Amino acid sequence: MATRWFVTGGAGFIGANFVRGLLARRRDSHVTVYDALTYAGHEISLDGCTRTGRFALVRGDVCDADALDAALRDASPDVIVHMAAESHVDRSIHGPAPFLRTNVDGTFRVLEAVRARPGLRVAVVSTDEVYGSLGPTGRFVEGMPLAPSSPYSASKAAADLLTLAYVHTYGLDAVITRCSNNYGPYQMPEKLIPLMILSALRDQPLPVYGDGMNVRDWIFVDDHCAGIELAAERGRAGREYNFGGECEKPNLEVVETILRKLDKPRSLIRFVTDRPGHDRRYAMDIARATEELGFRPSVDFETGMERTLRWYQDNLDWCAAVEDERHRTHMRANYERRLEAGAEPSADRAAPEETR
Ligand code: NAD
Ligand code: TDX
């Protein structure tokens, strides 16, 4: 079992939940977080970790090979969990360059660092979005050809392929995890669920793209973190593992659930211009992770949403801290015109045809 963990991107949403969970449950674990602290990475999300005496935060960029090397030398980990990434699809549409830099070149630097350290294992955290978009039926299965549609998902697919090439060519001890949409505490309010929670709490419009019938497979973040831990310790090198919540929901249903639970009116919903290239549906087949790793999602949507809503209501200070100028600039660029224009769902309906 691994005791010394090195988590790139550990100050982000999934990273903070992963690191907190590991430190709390495994008293023999030591965790180094290596994070550039971009607009999405926040030291406050890791508050309290230092008190364990088993935690270190190193501010560093995964694209900086020398800094990465020095941090790895100091940390001397058994395993790297590589989750540093630019993670927001809308931002990748506005400006793809940081996505290519961090997600492709950054992953290359991490793989090179692992190659220089025989015996070191790496779990590369990827996404369901590398598979593209589904029609009304079917699920993503590992081994399907990759068909990413956004600059974000294309950069993640490139990282996956590079990882597999390193296993094949250099015998790297690497696994890849691919997960569906996460929700839970510490998620930046640029993503659907926290954005809708905060907008509803503030009685502001809830911007729903297109007809609101795009489907995502929602998983509570702790379940994804459990899957990453399993894959990092028990996964077979060169193998991809799908994780998902077995919880498909159209976006509109998610938004209506939030409004109902907060006792806010449905009239806050605003149908706005669709996301260009918007994937219609994601759904994960998790049989491999279940059979080989013993993975099962354990938090149902009702419970996960209750926990998430409570967390955001109790942590408005965290929200105010992360909604800084960098966040506000993105929000203006992405929503100002959409909200001014508005759009009828029927006039703006995304093509529901199969894309694979
Ligand atoms: P996030 O945007 O909340 O966090 C990303 C973290 O990476 C931040 O702490 C940021 O500071 C850090 N980072 C960014 N660029 C960096 C760089 N160049 N060097 C070092 N650190 C850098 O993302 P998240 O939602 O926590 O996602 C984590 C990982 O999981 C990503 O690889 C993402 O693609 C993947 N993933 C996310 C979801 C989801 O629903 N959020 C689902 C499947 C997979
Ligand atoms: O304002 C919005 N209105 C809206 O209708 C936003 C931000 C989103 N949406 C829709 C688009 C998607 O169909 O909600 C759905 C979810 O959107 P996001 O929260 O942006 O997530 P998504 O694009 O599905 O990608 C997420 O899951 C896979 C993560 O951001 C990725 O990092 C992960 O790989």
Short key terms for the protein model shown above:
single chain; 356 residues; alpha/beta; Rossmann fold; 7-stranded parallel beta sheet; two-stranded parallel ribbon; 13 strands; 16% strand; disordered C terminus; binds nicotinamide-adenine-dinucleotide; binds thymidine-5'-diphospho-beta-D-xylose
What does this structure look like?
The chain has about 350 residues and is an alpha/beta fold. The protein has a domain at about 5-185 and about 220-245: NAD(P)-binding Rossmann-like Domain (Rossmann fold, 3-Layer(aba) Sandwich). Helix content is about 40%, strand content about 15%. It contains twelve helices and 13 strands. The chain has helices at about 15-25, 65-75, 90-95, 95-115, 150-170, 190-200, 220-235, 250-260, 285-295, 300-315, 315-320, 325-340, and strands at about 5-10, 30-35, 55-60, 80, 120-125, 175-180, 180-185, 205-210, 215, 220, 240-245, 250, 270. The protein has a seven-stranded parallel sheet with strand order 3-2-1-4-5-6-11, sandwiched between helices. The protein has a two-stranded parallel sheet with strand order 7-10. Helix 4 packs parallel to helix 5, helix 6 (about 190-200) runs parallel beside helix 8 and helix 6 packs across helix 10 (about 300-315). The radius of gyration is 20 Å and the shape is globular. Bound molecules: nicotinamide-adenine-dinucleotide and thymidine-5'-diphospho-beta-D-xylose. Nicotinamide-adenine-dinucleotide binds near residues 9 and 38.
CATH architecture assignment of the domain at 4-183 and 218-243? 3-Layer(aba) Sandwich
Cα-atom radius of gyration: 20 Å
Tell me the CATH topology of the domain at 4-183 and 218-243: Rossmann fold
Strand coverage percent: 15-25%
**Main beta-sheet strand count, sense and barrel state:** 7 strands, parallel
- Cross-sheet strand order for the largest sheet: 3-2-1-4-5-6-11
In total, the number of strands is 13
Bound molecules: nicotinamide-adenine-dinucleotide, thymidine-5'-diphospho-beta-D-xylose
Give the helix proportion (percent range). Answer: 40-55%
Count of individual helical segments:
12
Show unreliable segments. Answer: 344-356
Listing every helix as H and every strand as E from the N terminus to the C terminus, the arrangement reads EHEEHEHHEHEEHEEEHEEHEHHHH
CATH class of the domain at 4-183 and 218-243: Alpha Beta
- Structural class, judged by helices and strands? alpha/beta
Q: What is the CATH homology-level superfamily of the domain at 4-183 and 218-243? A: NAD(P)-binding Rossmann-like Domain
